[in-house]
Amino acid sequence: MNITVVGIGYVGLANAILLAQNHSVTLIDIVSDKVNLINERKSPMQDPYITQYLESVKLDMHATMDQDIAYKDAELVIVATPTDYDPATNFFNTKSIEESIDKILKINKKALILIKSTVPVGYTESLRQKFQIQHIIFSPEFLREGQALYDCLYPSRIIISNKEDEGKRLAKLFMEGAIKKDIPILYTDSTEAEAIKLFSNTYLAMRVTFFNELDSFAVKHELNTKQIIDGISLDPRIGDHYNNPSFGYGGYCLPKDTKQLLANYKDIPNNIMQAIVDSNETRKEFLVEEIINTKAKVVGIYRLIMKSNSDNYRESAILGIIERLKEKNVEILIYEPQINQDRLEDIVIVKELKEFMSKSEIIIANRYHPELEKVKDKVYSRDISNKD
Q1: Are strands 331-335 and 298-302 parallel, antiparallel or unpaired?
Q2: What is the DSSP-derived secondary structure letter of residue 316?
Q3: Are 191 and 129 in contact (CB under 8 A)?
Q4: What distance in Å separates the CA atoms of residue 343 and residue 365, rounded to the nearest whole number?
């Protein structure tokens, strides 16, 4: 089958590699560096499975910036372009999806279009009406940053918003490239599939905020957070996962998905959805006060990335901490090997870890790392289990 994937991000590339094991896949992106790296069989992102498969697995896959090459002979086009939350409109910015579909239809009206981007509830149906076609299907992704291809190879479930034979053929495509067997498959309507994605991520965000608020309580009352969480997590209905305190949820998905779902709740009574979004900000404010109370004059920020094995700090919770510390005129230093420049806005980036540890009076770390062991008395972190 000739398949085109629009967007060389975590979602697009992971799905392209999965499918390229058995089909001919063309990736298209507007960033030439990404296109060149793919054609050189190098990963543009940090993901061990993506790197391994590009280097050592036989894949029928190439990348291009040419729309005619990408769309002309495609039987299936998977749209995996980014949809960031736009605070001005209180909605996802879905412009890239619509522009992609418009270009696809001008070149190849027969291609089946499958959306993998995260979208508002009801969006796919609105696209069918806008473009006056029915062959647009939505399939939510449940991929972790840094583990995207692994999650394609061992999916928790596959959800296709088509109950006909077309949907079953699509599910087969994703199953045949996977390593995991007996994958749960669910065929739904498109709006229900969109809701599944947003409610899933909002539930995960709710777990993060719950255990963060538990930790705030324990800090104020000088209690042992780990003992409390260990005791709670032994209940099999709760489980020992997504329970490690942090500076707040962040990354590609949870911040924007929770806000989008809240926007979809317009005119619908709710308490929990609003509280999840508010709690994430309250947590940062609480931690900043704790940091200020240490009276440290120079605050070091150890890493901007959200978690280990990541190269992304977009929407990282630590950025909210930094913003609030700046408002209080605290001197800040940053140690982040992923950044090449000398400053992040007006904050100095220290390149050498030893120098960073020496100059910082307190070191703020969302996730603790063994390389901080020599200065552990300086470290302020709410990481109680050294896991993401």
Answers
A1: parallel
A2: -
A3: no
A4: 19
pLDDT of amino acid 355: 96
**Three-state secondary-structure class, residue 88:** coil
Which pLDDT does position 250 carry in this prediction?
87
Q: Are 214 and 229 in contact (CB under 8 A)?
A: yes
Identity at 169, one-letter amino acid code: R
> What's this model's pTM, rounded to 2 decimal places?
0.92
Query: Domains in the chain and their CATH numbers?
Result: 2-188 (3.40.50.720), 224-380 (3.40.50.720)
Q: What is the C-alpha separation between 275 and 278, in angstroms, rounded?
A: 5
Q: Which two tokens stand for residue 125?
A: 């149906």
- Strands 85-86 and 91-92, bridge-based pairing: antiparallel
Rounded Cα–Cα distance for residues 57 and 22 (Å): 11
Range of weakest confidence among 4-18, 84-98, 234-248: 84-98
Which amino acid, one-letter code, is at 46? Q
DSSP per position, 157-177: -EEES--SHHHHHHHHHHHHT
Which letter does DSSP use for residue 74 in this model? -
Residue 4's DSSP bridge partners are 26, 77
| Nearest residue to 338 via CA among 347, 348, 349, 346 | 349
Give the residue among 312, 308, 318, 319 at the shortest CA–CA distance from 370.
308
Both tokens assigned to 32: 């030439």
Average pLDDT over every residue of 360-373: 95
What are the catalytic residues? 253
Q: Provide the terminal-to-terminal Cα distance of the chain, rounded to the nearest Å.
A: 38
**Tokens of residue 150, six digits:** 């692994």
What residues contact residue 258 under an 8 Å CB cut-off, 6+ apart? 201, 202, 205, 249, 273, 276, 277, 280
